[in-house]
Design brief:
The complex is a heterodimer of chains A (297) and B (198). Chain A has 297 residues and is mostly helical. Chain A has 11 helices and no strands. Chain A has one domain. In chain A, helix 1 crosses helix 9, helix 3 runs parallel beside helix 9 and helix 9 crosses helix 10. The radius of gyration of chain A is 19 Å and the shape is globular. Chain B is 59% helix and 2% strand. Classes of the chains: A mainly alpha (297), B mainly alpha (198). Chain B: It holds the Pfam family Oxidored_q3.
Chain lengths: 297, 198
């Protein structure tokens, strides 16, 4: 357990770096490999900006909470057989709690500076991210059904015969919607969009902004590891050792999420809300019902 | 260690519960309440009920977020960062608070609570599932469907696209006779809005 925690803490910064590189490929935002480090260093050296009458405590803590939630979410992912940082019987629920609290933290990040653009970003993000989180829970219950357990370890073990991505093909694409939402990305980036001059981060600068970007990339790593575990068999695979498989699958999901963020267009919030409630949420119900029929004895 | 954690979490729960009534904004109050519930959820985890505890945190995060959103939406406090008085009916609420606290404390101290050690490897989720889908199924299903119907009703009533057309173009029901007066209740004083409390 302690070993797994240490491995996660050591592996996270390089993986965050890789996530930032993925974000830069073909985006025309500086060099791909060294760009994230240069930008990070430049941000750390800049001062934080002040706003008028902010909620100081929440403004200070929001980036840290975001990172902490990514870490807690990542901790339920088993790295190999019997190697998992938090060995609890309800890992999927803990992941769900991290999703829900992420929405709260992003809201607080936009609400606390007491400035218009961050506030608009915060409110419209909440409206979109809550239903996105809801559908992810139905999809995750679908992943838990064949295992008959909410433990992530059991969910992986239940995929020895066949991966969930084949058994429940709707699961992974629907879960990706959540991934885009909690990493503030592409079609679900209602929080930090460019049309709001950075949205919840519009008033941020300096180390606080650097930490926010770091946490956002860490959340992408956590989401990718979780998606790889719940739908792609996690550490299962031939020849290579378990952690190597988990790493490869995590990187694949990460690349797919970044690509999806670039490929799909962002709709106006009202249309996205309708799309979520009328199309995606019923799809997740259908996916869950299909899984239920499949696992009936 | 467990005792120290329990004491720390209980203190946090009570302190943040108290702060709910002392802060000056809807958003702060909602999230103080959320912190209080998270502390209670963690106490449940300490009591070897991880599912109940973590599910409480999960639900409360969502609920308090929705509550903050709706309260700010319907209140005269745009954005929730403007200071406002969060309490009213001081005397009544102080009396009600003291009576409720004394009553609940007496109930906990005086009632004969079962002392039953839960073994380490017991399947709490399975037991809870049997409880929910067994003897208590009718209650939970009734409550669930009622809540869902309430939510859908609230959304339909407050939606911009009303039953009789968009709200900004009148949204009047048709007349009882062809071309007659619109059916339904007439707004008093030409649509004067009452601002309710919270």
């Amino acid at each position: 357990m302690i070993a797994a925690t240490l491995i996660l803490l050591l592996a996270l910064p390089p993986l965050v770096w890789v996530a930032a590189m993925f974000d830069r490929i073909g985006a025309g935002r500086g060099t791909v490999v060294m760009g994230p480090l240069q930008n990070g260093a430049a941000l750390v050296l800049r001062p934080n900006t002040e706003t008028e009458a902010p909620d100081r405590l929440n403004r200070l803590l929001a980036p840290g909470w975001y990172l902490a939630l990514a870490l807690v979410g990542l901790s339920v992912v088993p790295l190999a057989e019997d190697v998992v940082a938090s060995e609890i019987s309800t890992g999927l629920v803990l992941w769900g709690a991290c999703e829900a609290l992420t929405v709260v933290v992003v809201f607080l990040h936009g609400w606390s500076p007491n400035a218009p653009l961050p506030l608009i970003g915060a409110y419209r993000y909440v409206a979109i991210a809550l239903p996105a989180m809801l559908l992810s829970m139905f999809v995750l219950i679908g992943a838990a059904l064949p295992a008959q357990s909410l433990s992530v370890v059991e969910v992986v073990e239940a995929q020895r015969e066949i991966w969930n991505v084949i058994r429940q093909p709707l699961g992974l694409p629907l879960f990706m919607a959540l991934g885009l939402a909690i990493t503030l990305r592409g079609p679900f980036d209602y929080a930090d969009g460019a049309e709001l001059a950075g949205g919840t981060s519009a008033e941020e600068s300096g180390p606080a902004l650097a930490l926010w970007h770091f946490a956002r990339a860490a959340m992408l790593v956590a989401f990718s590891a979780m998606a790889a575990t719940a739908f792609l068999g996690g550490y299962l695979g031939p020849v290579l050792p378990g952690p190597a498989w988990l790493l490869l699958k995590t990187l694949a999901v990460m690349a797919a999420t970044v690509a999806a963020g670039r490929f799909f267009v962002r709709m106006p919030p009202a249309r996205m809300l309708t799309f979520l409630w009328v199309v995606l949420l019923p799809l997740s119900f259908a996916s869950l019902a299909l899984v239920g029929v499949e696992v009936l004895p | 260690m467990t005792d120290a954690l329990f004491l720390a979490l209980s203190t946090l729960a009570i302190w943040s519960g108290w702060r709910v009534f002392r802060v000056d904004s809807m958003v702060r109050a909602s999230f103080q309440l959320m912190v209080s519930f998270i502390a209670v959820g963690l106490i449940a985890v300490l009591l070897a009920a991880p599912y109940i505890g973590i599910a409480t945190i999960f639900m409360m995060a969502v609920e308090m977020m929705v509550m903050a959103l709706f309260m700010v939406m319907f209140m005269m406090n745009p954005a929730g960062l403007n200071p406002m008085v969060m309490v009213h009916q001081h005397r009544f609420s102080i009396a009600a608070g003291i009576i409720a606290f004394a009553g609940l404390t007496a109930a906990v101290l005086l009632s004969d609570l079962p002392v039953q050690r839960v073994p380490e490897g017991v399947d709490v989720v399975r037991n809870l599932g049997h409880e929910l889908l067994g003897p208590s199924m009718l209650i939970f299903e009734t409550a669930g469907v009622t809540l869902l119907a309430t939510m859908i009703g609230a959304v339909v009533l407050s939606a911009h696209s009303g039953r009789y057309g968009a709200s900004d173009t009148g949204s009047l029901p048709p007349g009882l006779t062809p071309g007659g007066e619109p059916a339904g209740r007439k707004p008093e004083n030409g649509g004067h809005h009452h601002h309710g409390g919270h």
